[in-house]
Specification:
Layout lengths: L1 H4 L6 E4 L9 E6 L3 E8 L2 E6 L21 E11 L2 E2 L1 H9 L3 H10 L2 E11 L2 E2 L5 H10 L8 E3 L3 E2 L2 H10 L4 E6 L8 E9 L2 E11 L5 E6 L5 E7 L5 H13 L3 E2 L3 E14 L1 E2 L5 E2 L2 E6 L2
Parallel strand pairs: 1-12, 7-9
Antiparallel strand pairs: 2-10, 2-11, 3-4, 3-5, 5-6, 5-7, 7-8, 11-12, 13-14, 13-17, 14-15, 16-17, 17-20, 18-19
Length: 291
């Protein structure tokens, strides 16, 4: 069956700026975990990342399935920390290699597979079916008794209301999917993600010499500055040239990798969230801040 699993490439989403209502779509919360394809063939469960990497051993708590039929699910693996889905926690699970540590985390920081699509069931490839029909089949797959496997809630024609709710709850965003979309196994405008961005202002304090981004920092209450990561995306070529020319004219110091300047220029960026150690997560440049 391993040759079959290789063919299940995930269908990816395109970015969309604003929430909307449309009765041709279903809407789902966007789970802040990592994408996974779960296959169950011949009573054996395997789990693959969106890139096709086999991560089955990382999640022993997801192996306890007794489905009698072959099943392939698309979904998100997530971890709950202090009552909220936490991206850093699931990344810890994904990157853990030690078997002993995996077993400890499986008990103390269990992962949940949240299914939002079904690609194969009872010896049939379902990817050519409309999404709404696949959703109906997914609802027939019994999840009872499997504490670590569930299905995503979906809403019809309520994209704006759902987005307002996830903003209140500080959830990552929502997903909009055409009801009649087949499962293409590639990026498609039939599936859209609308991110609940956090906006913040940072100081720009240098750049990477190999064009890998701009260094950022924030000013702490004690007057000191703390590095907050690198912003790589969102700048135009003109903005890049302006900033790098400014850095060269106002050089503070440099090393083999970076050019550094004093924290005088500020920028507005949007991020998924702040990490637990105070770094920007997936920052995107919006514009320079002019006093």
């Amino acid at each position: 069956m391993s040759n079959i699993t290789i063919r299940f490439s995930p269908m990816l989403l395109e970015m969309h700026d604003h929430p909307f209502d449309d009765d041709k779509y279903i809407f789902e919360p966007k789970i802040d975990g990592h994408r996974a394809i779960l296959t169950h063939f011949d009573q054996r469960t395997s789990i693959y990342t969106r890139y096709g990497n086999n991560v089955t051993r990382q999640y022993p708590e997801l192996h306890r399935l007794n489905w009698q039929h072959d099943v392939v699910l698309d979904g998100e693996i997530a971890c709950n920390n202090a009552g909220k889905i936490d991206y850093e926690s699931v990344m810890k699970r994904l990157k853990t290699e030690s078997s002993m540590r995996i077993n400890i985390l499986s008990a103390n920081l269990p992962a949940t597979f949240i299914a939002f699509d079904i690609l194969w069931y009872k010896n049939q490839d379902l990817r050519c079916l409309p999404l709404i029909q696949r959703k109906d089949i997914l609802s027939q797959v019994c999840m009872e008794g499997f504490d670590q496997i569930t299905t995503i809630p979906m809403f019809e024609n309520k994209g704006v209301v759902l987005f307002d709710y996830i903003k209140e709850q500080s959830i990552e965003g929502i997903v909009a999917k055409l009801k009649d979309s087949s499962y293409t196994g590639k990026r498609s405008s039939s599936w859209l993600k609308i991110i609940n961005w956090t906006f913040t202002t940072v100081y720009l304090v240098g750049y990477h010499k190999n064009d890998l981004g701009w260094l950022t920092s924030i000013r702490l209450d004690n007057g000191q500055y703390k590095q907050t990561g690198i912003v790589q995306y969102g700048m135009t070529n003109a903005q890049r040239k302006f900033y790098e020319d400014y850095c060269k004219s106002n050089l503070f110091k440099e090393d083999n990798e970076y050019v550094y300047i004093e924290p005088r220029i500020q920028a507005k960026v949007k991020i998924r969230n702040w990490t637990s150690n105070g770094m920007l997560r997936v920052p995107i440049f919006i514009d320079f801040v002019v006093d």
